[in-house]
Amino acid sequence: MEELCQRTEFIHAPDGSLQRSTPPQRGRLFNPAERGSTLNSDGWTLGVGRWAACSRKLSELGVVLIMKRQRPFVIATFAMTVDGKITTRTFSPVDFTSREDKLHLLRQRSLGDAVLIGHSTLKLDNVRLGLPGTELRDARVQRGQTPYPLRVIVSNEGRIDHRLKIFQTDISPIVIFSTTRMPRAYRTALMPKATLHLSKRKNVDLAEMLHRLRGEYKVRTVACEGGATLFRALLEQDLVDQLNLTIAPYLFGGANAPTLMGLNKNFLPASVHCSLKDMRVVGDECFLTYRIKHRKSDR
Question: Looking at the 3D structure of the chain, how many domains does it have?
Answer without folding.
Answer: 2
